[in-house]
Amino acid sequence: MISNSSLFQITVKFFVFDHSIMAANNNTPTALDKEQIFGMAEKEMEYRVELFNKLTQTCFAKCVEKRYKEPELNMGENSCIDRCVSKYWQVTNLVGQLLGSGRPPM
User: Fold this and answer.
1) Is the distance from CB of 62 to CB of 84 less than 8 angstroms?
2) For a Cys staple, 33 with which of 8, 21, 29, 46, CB 3.0–4.6 Å?
3) Number of C-alpha atoms within 13 angstroms, CB side, residue 50?
4) pLDDT tens string for the chain (106 positions)?
5) Do 31 and 5 form a contact (C-beta atoms < 8 A)?
6) Distance CA 106, CA 39 (A)
7) Which long-range contacts (CB under 8 A, 24 or more apart) does 92-98 make?
């Protein structure tokens, strides 16, 4: 499971790297830029945590029996979760691509 702090660190490193390129080009980020970077990193972290939580809740509700019979997932539940997660990521990526491109849905 990915923690909030791990996602935050990854996102901040990405934005800091992007702005370090700006600094190398003599476009030094201001205090306002840094504040925006951290704000964007925080929003990105919140989005990713929410996405992970929705994926977990959706696939758990769909694939795991309501009455636990065994302490471990059985083969059918494992297979269902694998397919559910795969489809969830495919749809999420497709929606992101469509929103990013500005194209209407197929």
Assistant:
1) yes
2) 29
3) 7
4) 445 455 445 555 555 555 555 555 556 667 778 888 888 888 988 988 999 999 999 999 999 988 888 889 999 999 999 999 999 999 988 988 888 887 665 6
5) no
6) 34
7) 92/51
